[in-house]
Amino acid sequence: QVQLVESGGGLVQTGGSLRLSCVVSGRTFARSALGWFRQAPGKEREFVASINWSGFSTYYADSVKGRFTISRDDAENTQYLQMNGLKPEDTAVYYCVVGDVAGPKADYRYWGQGTQVTVSS
User: Fold this and answer.
1) What is the phi/psi pair of residue 42, to 5°?
2) Tell me, what's the pLDDT at 102?
3) Is the pLDDT of residue 27 over 80?
4) What is the mean pLDDT of residues 93-108?
5) What's 101's DSSP letter?
6) What residues does 58 pair with on adjacent strands?
7) Which of 87, 89, 102, 121 has the CA that lies 20 to 30 A from 49?
8) Quick one: 33 exposed, middle or buried, by C-beta within 10 A (0-12, 13-18, 19+)?
9) What letter would DSSP give residue 91?
């Protein structure tokens, strides 16, 4: 059974930083595409970032490009989302995902339970 456990969410002021982590078990991590989505209250879920199995290709939503960085540590079966320059509009529940192919339009089979990120103005 594949499990994804996120951590690192919380409350931060505008301009601050957070790093989200997601530990994956039950799947060959090194061959998986990884990513993050988010959903704000009253809004549809949206793609944030993803990284392919090799780590050489990354994808970002325009709204986070230049501020967020996705990375992976295959030795620890963990993916990260470093979020800098946070804005109130980044407030959402963030979900880590695992799939076969990276990219904003890819179909991610596995989802975490979500971690809340709140950015105060």
Assistant:
1) 75, 5
2) 96
3) no
4) 96
5) S
6) 51
7) 121
8) buried
9) -
Residue 66, Cβ density class (10 Å: 0-12 exposed, 13-18 middle, ≥19 buried): exposed
- Quickly tell me which residue has 């989802």 as its tokens: 111
25 vs 96: CA distance, rounded Å: 13
Torsion, Cα of 19, 59, 112, 88 (10° steps):
50
Q: Which of 75, 74, 73, 70 is nearest to 60 (CA)?
A: 70
pLDDT above 80 for 5: yes
The residue count for the chain: 121
Is the confidence at residue 29, as pLDDT, over 90? Answer: no
Calculate the dihedral angle through the C-alpha atoms of 11, 120, 115, 60, rounding to the nearest 10 degrees. -120
d(CA 16, CA 80): 17
Give tens-digit pLDDT for 41-85.
Answer: 999 999 999 999 999 999 999 999 999 999 999 999 999 999 999
Q: Looking at residue 111, what DSSP letter applies? A: E
What mean pLDDT is reported for the chain? 96
